[in-house]
Amino acid sequence: MPRPKIAARLAESYPGLGFLAVLLLTDDLRLAGWTGAMLALALMLWLGWRGRRPDTIALGLNLFTLLCAPLVETLHLLGHGAQGRLLLDHLRPALLVTVALTGAALTLLTPSGFVGRAGAGSRRGSLALLLLALVAALLLARPPVAELPLNAAAALLGLFLARRWIARRAVGAPA
Q: How confident is the model at residue 67, as a pLDDT?
């Protein structure tokens, strides 16, 4: 795989990495959220400028990153801080639901669907990925989340691996 392709794929993780870095360095969730949102906006503008299609799962992650901080901030400013707190308390399942909703939109509106590759099995594979994302979100939404060995990162890794496997089976070519 050529180096620019790897660099471009890694660039799609910068909003999440920026969020985590700021959160770990400052312990300020608000600053981390806005940092991630601005990086996601910059990334989406860059991808559009370059005419590149985003990775389907990373698109869901970056949409969540882009929308979460402004949504929580707006709810707080409008006097609905409890709803903003509810979202913050359920970030992991909300993240996976956003990925699933993005996948649903891609499955319904594009020929390549959530798998990201057009082909005979792409639609069925996309639906399988949506189901996996929603099941993971439901598992993470259960009350004893801290006791579950599964977390959002493991669920997302599973989605990336499943999508790669489904894409290879759908078109018979490397993903």
A: 93
Q: Structurally, how many domains does the chain consist of? A: 2
Would you say the pTM of this structure is higher than 0.85? no
Amino acid residing at 124 = R
Q: ∠ CA 113-48-153 to the nearest 5 degrees?
A: 55
Better-scored residue on pLDDT, 162 or 15: 15
- 78, 104, 135 — which closes off a domain? 78
Question: CB of 162 within 8 A of CB of 128?
Answer: yes
Task: Of 24, 158, 143, give the one whose Cα is nearest residue 99.
Answer: 158
CA proximity to 99, closest of 17, 28, 162, 20: 162
| Contact between 109 and 56 (Cβ < 8 Å) | no
The torsion angles phi and psi of 36, rounded to 5 degrees, stand at -60, -40
Model confidence over 94-117: pLDDT tens digits?
888 888 888 888 877 877 777 777
For residues 96 and 108, the answer to whether their CB atoms sit within 8 Å is no
Q: Are residues 68 and 16 in the same domain?
A: yes
Distance in angstroms (rounded) separating the CA atoms of residues 20 and 18: 5
**Taking the chain, what is the end-to-end CA distance rounded to the nearest angstrom?**
11
